[in-house]
Amino acid sequence: MSTSGVVIVGGGLAAARTAEQLRRAEFSGPITIVSDEDHLPYDRPPLSKEVLRAETDDVSLKPAEFYAEKDITLLLGNGARSVDTDAKTVTLADGSTLGYDELVIATGLVPKRIRSFPDLPGIHVLRNVGQSLALRREAADARRAVVVGAGFIGCEVAASLRRLGVDVVLVEPQPAPLASVLGEKIGELVTRLHRAEGVDVRCGVGVSEVSGDDRVRSVTLSDGEQIDADIVVVGIGSHPATDWLEGSGIAVDNGVVCDDAGRTSAPHVWAIGDCASWRDEVKGQVRVEHWSNVADQARVLVPAMLGQDAPAAVSVPYFWSDQYDVKIQALGEPEATDTVHIVEDDGRKFLAYYERDGVVVGVVGGGFPGKVMKVRAKIAAGAPITDLLG
Ligand SMILES: Cc1cc2nc3c(=O)[nH]c(=O)nc-3n(C[C@H](O)[C@H](O)[C@H](O)COP(=O)(O)OP(=O)(O)OC[C@H]3O[C@@H](n4cnc5c(N)ncnc54)[C@H](O)[C@@H]3O)c2cc1C
């Protein structure tokens, strides 16, 4: 490689993990992280949890000294605007150009907004630390929040706002929170958890209008009901941050299209993390939006880039979500369409096995960390569900 080295575009977990992994693999050339944010690469899970609840402000993945020690250059507050894959250059927001030998795209996601909503103070989305702090500031004086969308982030925000003493209405067009990911049975247990904490959970209904004056004042549901609100949080999902790749020729289709090691359609260009759609032998292109997937991908991408032997891909994916005192954990690949066997339920905590074609494909626990982890080997082995159910 020439002196341009590896340029990583993105300032989050995927960028940091890629850089770390490169140094761990004894890559000694230049590494440059280019981020449109002013912060050191930081962790996002606490944004809807500890940061929102004002329990911490420190979310940096590593201190500045780490990057200095490892000779990793950070170009912060100067995002990438375009890439020229023939010239092997990236143009940044300030007009400067950076050459690369290998380029890694790690730009994450942009939260979706509801276009018909007016642009009023008090309407929030949550993806970065500034947005978390802004929501926290407003929550301090708020009486009632409407959270639109009961996916993981919506549910976590609802839980954190309740802990801050805010009344919360959680609005979800599906029959239950998390139903599209984990199925209705688990969704109902999650509804029960939130209701027990005083959240007004409204399922099977959407939001048709938001109104206010100098700030948001009320939300009208699709069934016509009007709810007063000081805060509206929109948690309806995100799309990959790939607009800056337009015209580059790099294939994008619900994320940057990659092979099973993160290679994109352009030579010497790779993609990783939430913005990347990696090829899976069985499922085709898959884009994962979970934390532990990032390190798993870095352990495959970096050796592929350096021409080293890669470890076998991780066979048991994992994610978690903290809601109140209940850690919801999923191992394997549970899907809403699987047969769900609830094997523990104490009225708050729960454990469920997911079965597909007679085989255990996943486990989801709420408040049962040890029992979730015990199922890993069965999932990895593709064991029959009867092994677990007896
Ligand atoms: C509020 C919240 C809570 C979460 N909680 C959990 C959880 O409990 N469990 C779990 O498994 N996962 C959780 N996740 C998901 C997890 O955080 C992500 O999977 C992880 O952050 C993905 O890392 P990434 O680097 O791909 O993307 P990101 O962390 O989003 O980083 C992308 C970075 O690229 C920057 N960028 C974008 N465009 C450009 C550009 N053109 N030029 C330069 N920089 C650019 C962005 O500003 C950002 O800094 C949560 C996510 C959020 C937002």
From TrEMBL:
The keyword Flavoprotein applies. Gene3D superfamilies: 3.30.390.30, FAD/NAD(P)-binding domain (3.50.50.60). One of its GO terms (molecular function) is oxidoreductase activity, acting on NAD(P)H. Keywords: FAD, Flavoprotein, Oxidoreductase. GO terms for cellular component: cytoplasm. Its cofactor is FAD. This is Rhodocoxin reductase.
